[in-house]
Write a structure and sequence with these properties.
single chain, 479 residues, alpha/beta, eight-stranded parallel beta sheet, four-stranded parallel beta sheet, 16 strands
Amino acid sequence: MCTDCIRLHSAYNPAREAERFVDTAIKEKNPRCIVITEPGESHLASVLRTRFPNASLIALRYTADKFTESDSLWTAVWRPGEAGTVTDFLYRFIPEEFIPQTVFVPWKPADSLWPEAAKAVWSGIAELVRLQSGILRTRTHFGKRWLTNMVNSVVLAKNPVRISALTGPVLLACSGPSLESVFPQDLSSFHVAAVSSSLAALSENRVFANICITTDGGYWARDHLRYLPSGTVLVFPPEAAVPRTILEEQPVVFLSYSSALEKKLFDLAGINSVPAERNGTVSGTAVRYLLDNGQGSVIAAGLDLSVSRSFSHARPHAFGPLLDSGTRRTSPLCSVLHERAENSFALDAYARWFETNSQSFDGRLFRIPASLRSIPGIPVRDLAQESGTKAFPLEMMTQDVPDRRVRAERVAHYLADRAGTVAALTPGMDVEPDILELLQLVSFAAYTTAMKSGDYRVLCADTSRYLATLAERITRRVR
């Protein structure tokens, strides 16, 4: 085809041209995903399908309406103007564990014809790689801790509860600087829900949160929970880092991301969970939870999702002492804050998520006017506009769960059984979904290496040993 005198394909033998292109452009022997930017008439698709029958083939188009007749040759196709950005689209189709085996290739004649579209698409690809690389590093570093958190939580939680649907408006306290603008307003008309990183600021201003949501599985995330008031319901997925004292003393609601491993552990422990959506930011998970389990509006304070010229969080903040300890004469606080403000990549990604999903909030999510960044689709609302409404008291129902020794015995037996199963795995065997999750959690780096090499011996040996150790450890913790 020749478009505006720029030919996208060979006029004589486009099929042979496609074969030569694949020979030179794709060196990966066993790619899981192949992403081609504007492949034109899609002569590449049949060649790629023959060479790599197990790979997902994704086309990123540069126009909204050209070459539609060949879209069916691809596993998935994105076009400008469709809901969601290139990054969001690719994030749905390419799991982070597939990134090391994903090939991104441009069809260069199309880049010459649509340079601005090409620039935008490749910018989105770069953003995806940065985002997924960060997730890969996080999973590699924290996988074992997340698994340990999951086991400890379902075994040690003493008071799992169910909460009836929230009636009346909810103030969601996030940890951005604009949270400070709600103090000292009268909040008696609201259910107050807090993400854990806002607890220190709420405590300083004597605001009691009915509900607290935390999702972070890292060790330092537990510092936020030092400010959790007695009696506040803690809502969290089992992988979150929650101190033992809180598991034993506070009412808790378990969130579930609907993974096979979570289901196994909840079933063994006799715990009912609430469906939730995994999100890059706890605020996203909190908003979904409150909208799905409530009837009124949710007004977010501190949902700034932008850098500021000074502190990036409402004050005081649990990490304040850590920030202070990192300052010195040659690196004063103002320099540290400026450095942190320069890195807005994650905040930009979170803001796009809220914008992309704004229609699904059904007009019930608002932000206070003091928020620093406008997010299309999420209007602002002053707290005074809710003055005529009243939040009814929170109703909790205690779950009847087995004694923790019984739970520990069941979970330990499951882990020991899975340790034996993993040790006996051989290439080509069908792997149950929960075992796949265990392999990824215990050693994600070894898992991605095994996917590329096909040699799973080191991965299986390491995972088997760790599961056996974890089974012994949880048994000792309840003696």
